[in-house]
Amino acid sequence: MLILIVDDSSAARMIVKKSLRQAGFGGHTVIEAGNGLEALEAIAQDAPDLLLTDWAMPEMTGIELLRALQEQGKKLNSVLITSQGTDEMREEARAAGALFLLTKPLSSERFREALEPVLG
Amino acid sequence: MTTTNTSQTSTAPTASPASATLADLGGKYLTFGLGDEEYGISLMRVREIIALMDITCVPLTPDYVRGVMNLRGKVIPVVDLRRKFTMEATEDHDRKCIIVVDVEADDDSTSTEATQVGVLVDAVSEVLHIAGEDIEAPPSMSMGADVDFLAGLAKARDQVKILLDIDRVLASYDLQAWAEEGALEARSDEEQPPEEA
Amino acid sequence: MAVALAEINAQAAAGEQGEVAERAASLGVLLDALLFDPLVEPDDVYEQFLFELRELAQALTPDAGPALGEAVVASEEPMANTCEGGSQGAVPLEAAEAAPEPPEESGAGEWEDDEEILTEFVTEAMEQLDASDSHLVHLERKPGDGEALNAVFRCFHSLKGLAGFLGLQGIESLAHAAEDLLSLGREGKGCFSPGALDAAFAAVDQLKVLVGEVGTKLAGRASDGAARENSGDGSDDVSQLAEELSTRNTAAIVDRLRGLVADGSWKGGERDAEAASDAGTVPGGVEDAREVPEYQPADAPEQPAGQASGGQDSIRVDSERLDRLVDMIGELVITESMVQRSAQAAEAANDGGGGGVELRRQLARMDKFTRELQELAGALRMVPVRASFRRMARLARDVARKSGHRVDFRLSGEDTELDKSVVDRIGDPLVHLVRNAIDHGLEDPERRLAAGKPALGCVELRAYHKAGSIRIEVEDDGRGLDRERILERAQERGLVREGENLSEREIYQLVCRPGFSTAENVTAISGRGVGMDVVKRGIDAMGGSLEIASRPGQGSCFAMHLPLTLAVIDGMVIRVGAERYILPTLSVVRLVMPEETDLTSVLRTSEMITVQDELIPVLRLGELFRVETAAEAEPLVVVAEADGTRVALFIDELLGQQQAVIKSLGDGLARTPGVSGCAIMPDGRVGLVLDVGGLLRLARHNPGDADGTTLTTGAALTI
C-alpha cells in the first residue's frame, strides 16, 4: 500500500514514519508532502491508499485538505493527526471525511491499534 | 589521457595494517615500479590511475611534494614517491603514472569528502591478488625510518613486492607540521595576529 | 551520519525553483546528447566527468526523478532522501549520501533514526525561531496582527509536539508555556502587552539556547560514536554546570510565562501607547506623521521557516556538493574550450568538409549551454540577505530598549541576493553598524523634539545591487558625525598631525582607525566608533569598502560596498621563470619598468627601489620561491600593497588579466606561506594565487635570503 504523510515539519514526518515502522507497517511505501497543496498534487499523481496528515499547517491545514478532497469527490482513507483532540475537532474531522483523529504523542501501540484495520 | 576506474567493491583489506595481522592484509593490490623495486598499494585505496599531466609547483614545500594538479576541477597534491623515498630523481617519461589514492581525512578536517592525493610512480605494473599467508612482516631493522611506511613484504610471481601503508606514506601531518612551522616562522615577527585571509 | 552539515538554504521562490529543476532536467537531456554525439570525441575522462556531473545535477533537484520517469521511492530508502511523490516539494538532500539503512529494528538502528530526526529537528527549530523573532518584532508594531500571532503560535506549538516526542523536556515545557500565552492572545483577539511580548522574546531566546544545546550534543555525539548512551554525560563538570544554568533559566522563563497567562495581564485589549513606547519601537498609528511601514507578512514572499523546511520554496543542499557541482561546471567550460580549439585545428588541417559546419554548429550550441550552466551554478550559491536583516530587526529592538531611544527600523531590499560566502561574513559588521546607528546616531527623544525632529528616530537598513557589486547601507536621521570632535580626538591620539588638511571624507574615515572613540559616555551597548575598526577590517577582508556620509543634525549613512562573491577574484596573471601566478588585482598598486638607477642596495642584503619618489623594498619572487629565471630577461616590477605596506615584486612578464575562481590548496598545503589558494587556469592547469600579505611576512622574516637555509628545509623535517 502507498501511504502519504503530510506535515510541514520534516522532523515530524520522520517521526510518523518511524512510528509506522515500529508499529510493524514498515513494509508499506511512504511518500511525503510538506503542506496541503503539495498533498493534493501527490494524491492526484500517485493515488495513495492512506493519508496521514497533520492538522495545523500553514498554507492549507489538514482539515482544509480533507475538505478539498471531498469537494473533488475523492475518496481516500484519511487520518488526521493533532495534539489536541477536542470533541469539536473530532466532529469537524468526521464531517470532512476522516476515518479518525490520532492525538499526539504518537506511540507505536496506538498506531498499530488504529491503523491495523486499514493497513492490516 | 586514459583513466582506469577501479572497482570500489574489491575485497582488499580495509583495516589499518597497524592493528591488523598479516593474514588480514591479503587482498588485491595495485603494484608499481619505483627504481628497481616493486611496490604495492591496497586496491581499495586506489581511486584511479592517470597519465602524467601538468603539475604546478607549490613554492617552499618539501621536495617530495611535486605540486598540485587539476583532477577534473578538483585540485589535489601530487607526491613524488621517488623523492619521498629519497631515491635519485629521474627525468619524466611516458610510463610514469599518477595513482590517485584516497587518504583518511584528519579528525579535525571539516571536509566530509575523502581527501585525494596523487602519487607519482615510475610505472604501474598490474593488479595482483595476494594471499594473507604470502605476506611477511617488514624487517624491523636496518631500513631506517622508511620501515614505518611498510605494511609487509609479499612474494608473488617470484618477486618481492613491498606493500605500503599508504596512509603513513602520505600522512598529511607531515605536510601540516611543515606548513605550521613555516607559517609560524614567517609570522614570528608579526606584532598582530594574522588576519583571516 | 551527516550531522550539522554546512547548508545552503537557497530560498528561491517556488517559481525559481521550478526553473532550476527544469534547467537541470534539460541539462540531463543535453548531457545524454553530448555523450552519444558522434562528433564528440569519446574521451574517457570527459565521459566520466559528464556522468559525474549529471549525477550531481540530479541530486540537486528532487524533480529530476520524475522527469526521468521514476516517481516513487520505497520506504526502505533513507528517510530524508524520500521523494515527495513527484510533487515539486523540496526535500532536504543532506542525508542523500548516507548509506541506506536496513529496515531492521535493532537498537542501534533506532538510535540512528533518532539522531537523524534530532538533526532535522534542530535545523527546523532554529529556522522557525528566527522567523518567530521577526514576527514578534512585527507584533510589537502591530499588536493586533492575527497572522503574525498565528505564525508564532504555530512555531511554539510544533516545537512542543516535536520536543515531546523526542523527550526534550526543557524545550517541551517552555514551548508549551509560550504556546499557552499566545493561544490566549489568539482567542481573545486582543493584542500583546509589552510585558507579554518581552516574555515571548525571552522564550524564543531561551528556546534557541536549548535547541542549540541539542545541536551541540548531536555534533559531539557524531564525532564520538562511542559516547552515545546518555546525552547528559555527567563526566564533564563544565557542561554540567552550563546545563544546570540553562535549566534554571528555562524554569524562570516558564514561570514568567505561566504567571502572565494566570493573571491575564497581557489582555489589555487596548493598546498601551505609553508602555509600547517604552519598548522603543512604534506602536501602530501613533501621533507621528511618519507612516509606519506596512507589514510585509513574513509568510508572503519568502515563507516562514515552518514551510521552508517542508515546503516548496527551498532545497537544502550539502554545500560541499554544491561546490563540487560548480567545480565540475567550471571544468566543463574548460573542456569545452579545449574541444573548440582542437576542432578548429582539425578544420584548419583538412580545409573543412561538409562535417565542419555541422560540428561548428554543435559546438556553438554547446558553448551556449555551458555558459548558461555556469551562470546557473553561480546563482545556486546566491542567497537573499533576508535572514541577516531579520536578525538586525530583532537587534534594533533590543538596542532601542536599552538605550531608551525610539526607533522606526526599516528594512528594504531583503531579497537582494549575494553569495553565501559573503552573507556569512556580513553579520558582524552589520551588528556594529546597526548598534551604532541606534545607540549613537539617534538622539534621545527629548533632544530630538528640541531639535524640531519627531521623537521617533528612523534607521533604515538597505541592500541593493549596483554595478556588479552589492551595497548595504545603514542610514539614520540622528545627530550626524561631529567633524570637529573627530578631528580633535584624532589629533589627541596622534592619528592626524596638527595642520594636516583633511577632506570631509577622510575625516569620517578616521572613526575606523583602531582605538578611535568619541564616546562622551561609553554606554553598556557600544561606545561611539567602538568596533568601527572591526567593521572596516571585516569589510576590507572581503575586498569591499566602507563609505561614510554625514550631515550635522540630519543623520549619517554608512555604506558597505561588497563583492557579490568571495569565490571569484580579479587577478593579474604573472610569469616568473616557467611558473605562472595570479596576483589579486586589488593588491596591485602599479606596474613599472625599473631602471638600474632606481635600485639601491641596503647593507648588501636587501634592495630598495625608488618609484615616484617613494622608496619601496624589493622582493624578487624568483629568488623567494626558488624558481629559475633567465638572467637576461628584462624584469618588470609590480608594486603591491597589503595592510598598508608596499612591496616591489620583481617578475618576468605580465601575461594578462583574468577572473579566477579561488579554491583551497587542500588540508596539507593550505598554509603555504605567500599563497592564499589556487585557481584552474583556462588551459586546465592549476595556477597559484599569491597573498601579498603573506609574501611580505615571508620577506620580512627572510630578507634577501637566497641560499635556502631557513624556510626550505621541508625535506629535512620529514624523512
- The CATH superfamily of the largest domain in chain C bears the name Histidine kinase-like ATPase, C-terminal domain
- CATH top level of the largest domain in chain C is Alpha Beta
What is the second-level CATH architecture of chain B?
Answer: Beta Barrel
Give the mean pLDDT of chain B.
74
Q: Please indicate the percent range of residues of chain C in DSSP E strands (runs of 2 or more).
A: 15-25%
Radius of gyration of chain C: 30 Å
Number of helices of chain B: 3
- What is the oligomeric state here? heterotrimer
Spatial strand sequence of the major β-sheet of chain C: 12-16-17-15-14-13
Secondary structure category of chain B: mainly beta
Count the strands of chain C? 20
Pick out the low-confidence regions of chain C: 1-23, 33-46, 61-111, 225-235, 265-312, 519-529, 703-719
Mean residue pLDDT of chain C: 69
CATH homology group of chain B: CheA-289, Domain 4
Radius of gyration of chain B: 18 Å
Q: State the major sheet of chain B.
A: 6 strands, mixed
Q: List the domain count of chain C as a whole number.
A: 5
Q: Order of strands across the widest beta sheet of chain B?
A: 1-4-7-8-6-5
Query: What is the CATH T-level topology of chain B?
Result: OB fold (Dihydrolipoamide Acetyltransferase, E2P)
Write down the secondary-structure element order of chain B.
Answer: EEEEEEHEEEEEEHH
Biggest sheet architecture of chain C: 6 strands, mixed
Note down, in words, how this protein is organized.
The complex is a heterotrimer of chains A (120), B (197) and C (719). Helix content of chain A is 48%, strand content 21%. Chain A has 120 residues and is α/β, with parallel strands linked by helices. In chain A, strands 2-1-3-4-5 form a 5-stranded parallel sheet, with helices on both faces. In chain A, helix 1 links the parallel strand 1 and strand 2. The termini of chain A are close together. Chain B has a single domain, classed as CheA-289, Domain 4 (OB fold (Dihydrolipoamide Acetyltransferase, E2P)). In chain B, the strands form 2 sheets. A 6-stranded mixed sheet of chain B has the order 1-4-7-8-6-5. Chain B has a 6-stranded mixed sheet with strand order 9-2-3-12-11-10. Chain B is globular and about 45 Å long. Chain C has 719 residues and is an alpha+beta fold. Chain C has 5 domains: 1-60, no CATH class; 114-220 and 248-263, HPT domain (Four Helix Bundle (Hemerythrin (Met), subunit A), Up-down Bundle); 322-380; 382-517 and 530-563, Histidine kinase-like ATPase, C-terminal domain (Heat Shock Protein 90); 568-701, OB fold (Dihydrolipoamide Acetyltransferase, E2P), CATH 2.40.50. In chain C, a hairpin with a 2-residue loop joins strand 14 (606-611) and strand 15 (614-620). The longest helix of chain C has 35 residues, at 107-141. Residues 1-23, 33-46, 61-111, 225-235, 265-312, 519-529 and 703-719 of chain C have low confidence and may be disordered. The chains are: A alpha/beta (120), B mainly beta (197), C alpha+beta (719).
